[in-house]
Amino acid sequence: MSTNAKASIHIKPCNIAQSEAHNRRDKDYLKALDPKKVYIRTDLTHKNESYVSPIMNGKTLQEYYVSQKAVVKEMTGRAMQEKDVEYTDKNGKKRVRHGSSPLREGVAVVEENTTMDDLKKFTDAVQERWGIRAIQIHIHRDEGHYEDSEEKAGWKPNYHAHIVWDWINPFTGKSYKLSKADMSKMQDLLAEILKMQRGQKKSETGLEHLERNEFIQKKQEAKNQALKEETDKLVDTLNSICKAMDIKEEELLVHELATDPLVNEAREAIKKELDIPIPMLGKDEWKAERKKAVKKILTDLQTKLMEAKATQKEEILRAGKALYKQTKKDIADKIEQNRILHEANEKLTAENTRLKEKLASVDETAVRKLQAECESANRRAERADRIATGERRRASDAEEKVHDMLAIPEIKEIWETIRRNKESFQRQINQWITDATKAISDFAKDYDKYLFSQDDESVIGSGIIAEAYMCGLDPTDKDQRTQATESLLGKVNWKGTTPFMSDLAATRTKQLSEEMSVPREIMEGLMLAAGGRGGANIGGGSSNNELTNWDGTKRNNGWGRNR
Q1: Strand ranges, E, within 20-74
Q2: Range of the domain at 200
Q3: pLDDT in tens, 388-414
Q4: 454-470 helix and 499-515 helix, angle to the nearest 10 degrees
């Protein structure tokens, strides 16, 4: 069920003390909740969903925050700045350097049918683009408000999701820096992935983001204004009903029977009805009740006047004439208004006709232009088809020639040997990658290790070269080798590791990639093996303690590195 909500996300520093209690609906939190600020229906809480990333490793947000401080200290050599610091710039102006916010929380507007998989796609896209990792996601379907809070009627749900982000770069220990353009792009990604209409950009509206309570207050003020305007219209309608009683006093004067008290009584009764306050809720019922009451007052007045018909016929007829004159005047006014509207409508019709004629001429030009483009496209397509036909013919001829060649036993045997060698080479490449990712993962789980062993370096170095081959990169080039290393790390299973050890393993792998040397001769050998014309070999010695360099010399440490 769509709520016509527009996708948006607002991110601010995470309130660690309150976040988990709110997102997980702790009992003590619910007891202390003020319904005027946040209304939660516990009968709907079972529809909520939560996801916690494995990198939290069972920690609370507070515990994870402490581990982040350790990462910042380890990577930067400085303690994390947690508090705002006031300083004076070179121009003598007071400024504030804000403290670090390693954990940030975003509230995203979603729909009832938004799934956790949808939000994971969004957070994966954010991590891929900016590196920021989502460590918790909570979908709330139990928050909202009642239009009539006293009667608990007209439930308006507020579907949203809380996303807690790790805003620290694990490789540098510094906070991620996102520009206004980056934050706007994040809004685009959310709307695109959730298939929702994007909220208006701040650059277009010029409006600042409103927190939940401020937004509800603004919305309620708008409703109150709309209700006031509708109430004013209602009062005007009631006044028009009473207009028939707006007659000069002498026209209703009856000497034998005083009608003034009757008329004044009716006026006072109507005024009393109109003085009844209009409620914030239930305005339709108020409107119906007032109409009914005024109608009864006028009916009662008419009845009382008619009772005097026998003795005050002439005076009653005079009153009737006054009512008739008033009605006649009202009809004349309506006719004049209708005439003015009719003239305005004729002018608009004439203007509309002129616009249609203008659009018709524009459309005709556009059609001719489109026809010319279609004809040009058809000619290009025909030319491309002729070229494709020639290529298919040449491919068919080549296939026949290959078929004839394979009919010769000697050539067929060579071909089968090449095919088997290529398959064997591909299996070897995959095995190197598998062994390398396992070695990295095992290192991250071993808290006694801080450096790779020689065997680790040999296995992981082979994996980097194999990954470079699979990605079409040249491992002899340092930059391309770095790309291959990033790709290899993306295949590592980090489950069961801590953030610190996984970051350390990744850092050591990158250091190995930077320091290792890969002669071009080995790539030539790999290319021959890939073509099925040789075996795959990246070197290696007669024992685990002695490896072979690319130039054939022996060494004790892997990949040209010196300890």
Answers
A1: 49-52
A2: 8-209
A3: 787 777 767 766 766 666 567 766 666
A4: 80
